[in-house]
Design goal:
Elements lengths: L2 E5 L8 H10 L5 E5 L7 H17 L6 E5 L5 H10 L2 E4 L4 H10 L2 H6 L4 E5 L1 H6 L2 E4 L9 E4 L7 E3 L9 H6 L5 E4 L4 E5 L2 E5 L2 E5 L2 E6 L1
Parallel strand pairs: 1-5, 2-3, 2-4, 4-5, 8-9
Antiparallel strand pairs: 1-10, 6-7, 9-12, 10-11, 12-13
Length: 214
Amino acid sequence: MAISILTSMFHNDFPIKFAERLNEIIVNRKNFVFIASEFNDFQEINDRYFKLFLSKFQNAGIRFYGCCIVDNRMTKEEAQRVVKDGDVIWISGGDTPTQFKYLKEYGLDKVLTNHNGVIIGMSAGAINMAKIAVCTTTCDHHQQEIYRALGLVDISVEPHFDYTHVTDELLELSNDYCIYGLCDGAAIICKDGDVELLGDIFILDEHAVKQISS
């Protein structure tokens, strides 16, 4: 059974509690796989973020034997193989619908839904891990877009949530979807039906906002 972790953004090192939980959760540390959000362009940016987040793991005391980036420098077959064999999969941030398009094009959606390791989604990656991806203009998407995503978790999230500025868009959407507002530095860990909350997290439901973790 996979362990799914949804995050927003980490501007500095991983928070202490999150780093401690990662050390407990990530037992197998052979292969780390970083799935980009844009496969065909921005390879230098992909490389930079790959190194940035790998350094956060290292600063948390977690080192991997092998590491790789999935973008168009791999064939579809290679990408499927490395994701299947990865102990920890990091689904990066970026443009959410674009990332999902590449996941489907490369056949990674099926590989991820059958994965038994640790899958961590950040921002766009976290949105795409949900059964229903809710992409809002509040979260800087070009337009509001809602679609059936990977279905790794039943939780729909709004990354980079600002509880001091809850938009009308989010309140209206909360009438139809229960949305978890993830502040930067927060994380949701899903394992065997259990949900663990770390950091500042809010729930938007039926036109109301409530803090459920701090």
